[in-house]
Write a structure and sequence with these properties.
The protein has about 550 residues and is an alpha+beta fold. It has 7 helices and 26 strands.
Amino acid sequence: MNRGSYAALSFSVAIGCLSASAVWADETMGSKDVVLRAMVDEVDRAMADLIIEGLPSPYLIQVNGQERRSWSIRAAYGGLVSSDDSRSRFAYVRTRVGSYVLDNSNIPRSFGVPGLLPLEDDYIAIRHALWLLLDQDYKSAVEILTRKEAYLKGKAEEERPDDYTKGKPIVVTAPSVSFEFDTSEWERRMVQLSLRFGRHGKIQNSGVALRVGHSTEWIVTSDGTRLRKEDSGLFLTIQAQVQADDGMRLTDSRTYLAEHVEQMASIETIEADIDLMCGQLVALSRASVLEQYTGPVLFEPKAAGVVFSSLLAGGLGARPIPLGSGSDRSFEKKLGLRVLPRSFRAFDDPSTDMFEGTLLAGAYDYDDEATPATRVELIGKGKLLNMVASRAPTKKTKKTTGHGRSGGFSDASATIGCLYVEDEDAVSRQELHEELVEAAKDEGLPYALRVESLGRGSGSLGNPLYAYKVDVETGKEELVRGMRFLGVQARSMKRILAAGTVRAVYNNMGSIGSSVIAPAVVFEELELSKIESEFDRPPILLPPNKRK
């Protein structure tokens, strides 16, 4: 499966489909694909003719192209809000001048040039658009390299990694796959789903949104890569908001992913989820506000995935530090050091697209540098062993692991795909709760805190959405709301007391899709405080559908 290219769609969906049975391209297939042929021919011409006397010529050119067909449908309160479909075709060219040791990349300036391509399969028109992009990018690349060399001359010599590494050319094409979408039928379904919220009188704001897309992506490089892949997927969201008597607004949502229309969850299933979500939100609006808490916290698997995505996943990519920039958020300096408890291990494996029946948004076959995805053992016995990497090396990580990914019009950088976290000493759910209660007792606390899910917030983790005070004597739980985490940092992960045996999937649907598969965990101590904010009063009038 390949979700990488589809993550760059305008609605930031990170799902897609590239058949694992992709076949080796032949001359017949290549000649039928006008876009691929135009890209190959124009890249070859550029490598031969893009020359300015006295200035460096390109040593590598890469062109990423994508054609998209997408649909977007939104409904609310039983009415259709919007229904749009679009088709576009674009290219992103990257011209490297200099050498693998020193080129025009890895500085705080944009790298590469994006542009639109003709929608029709007109060979000359497509080549003309690429010609303009490549000419523009080459001129910019020469200027950037000149400035970079001048900058380095004024700095003390120090050992620095090469700017880029050689890749192994591949020639792979996925066969064309037809994709059909019945707009009228799905407009009807979305209206039907939006009506369901009307059964719940306290829900103030609600809606459903469906985004569907199919794309073809091409990657062509001057060193021989010819990659063509097909991509498709659906992303459906239901969302509702309720307001407590004190004015606090509480929002919850559910998402559904599918590769094909027939794989989407049934209307009956989604309607049942709407009822459940609305009931939970209404109960939450009646809960008391937690003023302050410092002590052990249990994150259920759904919430734990967000925790590991926020605190761990972003630091596992080996990324070179751009010249003149001192910022480095990766964990590369911690290689060989402990970042998790000693019984924990973690690996990244984008090659598998499902986990226990759940589709993984971070799965793919080839990254955006046309490198096959590989499994990387990242953490063992709690220690950081390796990093995921692109073809841009760092001081400690020299080879790509097939994790060079980009979110649209940007250069590829090392990013996780599907991160699996597990504890060799995992315990049952009952033992996990016992660990939570015992940790609270040791601190002399009357209750502990259990978090089922996390919502949006200003902190690194977001704010607890569904959280419960757990009485240490009786085990009775009380739903609470209105709190936020304080000062949670990556080092907090070393203070995990225990983890469960059951794991769940968290799909991060950002510009670059990723997945975290994680168990429930108990943190020894975290701090939370009340959200200090002024809230609007609830509406004076009843909503129209509730008036007599």
